[in-house]
Design goal:
The protein is of the alpha/beta class. The chain has two domains: about 160 residues, FAD/NAD(P)-binding domain (3-Layer(bba) Sandwich), CATH 3.50.50.60; about 190 residues, 2-Layer Sandwich (D-Amino Acid Oxidase, Chain A, domain 2), CATH 3.30.9. It contains ten helices and 20 strands. Strands 4, 5, 6, 7, 14, 15, 16, 17 and 18 form a nine-stranded mixed β-sheet that branches. It has a six-stranded mixed β-sheet with strand order 9-2-1-13-20-19, with helices on one face. Strand 16 and strand 17 form a beta hairpin. Helix 4 packs across helix 10. The model has no long low-confidence stretch (mean pLDDT about 95). The structure holds flavin-adenine dinucleotide. Flavin-adenine dinucleotide binds next to helix 1, strand 14, strand 18 and helix 10.
Length: about 425
């Protein structure tokens, strides 16, 4: 079968890989000059299998209200002039209860854990170098209040069998992150999740795209998709750069832009672009740098180690599709990295970046068929698209190929919002 994948982010490329593995003739179209040029470009780099958690959680509305008035807040809401923004927030608020949280978390953990399995199978065959590490996540708490609040999370993690170590004596943090020695006495506690990994999502996606080419996948870069043409209940073609592309099946993996694109064919996909920021800093003092990921609970900022770079990422800004950089966000990232890992990198050469997380109100992705018989969706992976990418790609490729996916998939379908 001829399959056209729209979007060459980590989700589109992962889907293309498994489609090609299943024997299809695959073409990937993207407006950028290379793979992973948008949200998959400089994310925080966490393969967060253990800490896969929905944003919509009991108590979140109260927390969010407090954050809105805080300096260096992890959450910023600026009206974008659309009613949809408030509707999406309302849908998210409706998921902030214990029952919805458990359901959504189980869906996310299922895709993430499957992704972990897929990465290990892929690496056994392909050995992709993406500056990956398997040294866990250390979540640090600066106040007793944060430690107390973490007990609930720990309960949930234990329920899901996620291996973890509760660190009551902060000095112990240095066993995992020696460079925290200067600040450890001032911390209130920590949590260590040994199963989590790290790695550069862009490097991985680019290299997987190269492997795709080896399987015969065709990439059409610098092709902006202008329209999806439908014919009753089927997609007839896709228009990009004024050219018409036809296939037997189409996959929409346009990240945050899946919603506006699918709106043109009458579909209402509940994805909102939640902006986040990152700083990438070249390391100049190895001993002062992190060895894996440190998650600062106070600022909700993650600091991740690549080979010779540190990636600092965080913040959730709901302000529409604009990507412009707000200097205040850079100040927050600078503040956290300088407090935790002072003099570890060349901050003057740091690269500041922003990207739009494709978020659903329940935080779980949308993977599966749409109301058009030959159009599938793989989007809405929100804060964890890098973590979930391979699993999500494999599930959808199997569904399209008429192969029973290896995990439960029905409740991931976009139909749950119809
Ligand atoms: C600050 C930040 C930190 C993050 N940290 C992590 C993390 O630590 N771990 C984790 O798992 N996830 C993380 N994420 C989330 C993760 O980056 C995303 O979920 C993931 O990259 C989404 O991938 P995607 O392929 O769906 O979207 P994208 O990577 O955005 O891909 C969509 C593609 O569609 C193309 N496109 C869009 N419109 C058109 C059009 N009209 N025509 C042609 N092409 C088009 C774009 O060029 C793009 O290449 C983070 C995100 C941010 C912003």
């Amino acid at each position: 079968m001829k399959v056209l994948v729209l979007g060459a982010g980590v989700i589109g490329v992962s889907t293309a890989w498994y489609l090609a593995k299943n024997g299809h003739e695959v073409t990937v179209i993207d407006r950028a000059a290379s793979a992973a040029a948008e949200t998959s470009f400089a994310n925080a780099g966490q393969l967060s299998y253990g800490y896969t958690t929905p944003w919509a959680a009991p108590g979140m509305p109260k927390k969010a209200m407090k954050w809105l008035f805080k300096e260096h807040s992890p959450l910023i809401i600026r009206p974008d002039g659309s009613v949809y923004q408030w509707l999406w927030l309302w849908q998210m608020w409706r998921n902030c209860n214990a029952h919805a949280y458990t359901t959504n978390k189980e869906r996310m953990v299922r895709v993430s854990e499957y992704s972990r399995e897929m990465l290990s199978r892929l690496q056994a065959e392909e050995h992709i170098d993406f500056e990956g590490r398997q040294r866990g996540t250390l979540q640090i708490f600066r106040t007793d209040k944060e430690v107390a609040a973490s007990k609930k999370d720990i309960g949930v993690l234990q329920e899901y069998g996620v291996p973890l170590t509760v660190i009551d004596n902060p000095a112990q943090c240095t066993e995992y992150e020696p460079a925290l020695a200067h600040i450890a006495p001032r911390l209130a506690g920590a949590l260590y999740l040994s199963n989590d990994g790290t790695g550069d999502c862009r490097l991985f996606t680019e290299r997987l795209a190269e492997k795709c080419v080896g399987l015969g996948v065709r990439f059409l870069f610098q092709h902006t998709i202008n329209a999806i043409e439908t014919n009753g209940c089927r997609v007839r073609s896709v228009l990009a750069n004024g050219q018409r592309f036809e296939a037997d099946h189409y996959v929409c993996a346009l990240g945050s832009f899946s919603r506006p694109m699918l709106k043109t064919v009458g579909m209402n996909v509940p994805i909102y672009p939640v902006k986040g920021y990152s700083l990438t800093i070249p390391i100049h003092n190895e001993a002062a740098a992190p060895v894996s990921t440190v998650l600062d609970e106070t600022y909700k900022v993650a600091i991740t180690r690549f080979d010779r770079r540190i990636r600092v990422g965080g913040m959730a800004e709901l302000s529409g599709y604009r990507l412009q950089h707000h200097p205040k966000r850079k100040e927050t990232l600078d503040l956290v990295v300088n407090e935790l890992f002072p003099n570890s990198g060349q901050t003057e050469s740091a690269e500041f970046w922003s990207g739009l997380r494709p978020m659903t109100p329940d935080s779980a992705p949308l993977i599966g068929a749409t109301r058009f018989a030959n159009l599938s969706l793989n989007s809405g992976h929100g804060t964890l698209g890098w973590t979930m990418g391979l699993g999500a790609g494999k599930i959808l490729a199997d569904l399209i190929s008429g192969i029973q996916p290896e995990v439960v998939y029905g409740d991931l379908s976009p139909a749950r919002y119809v």
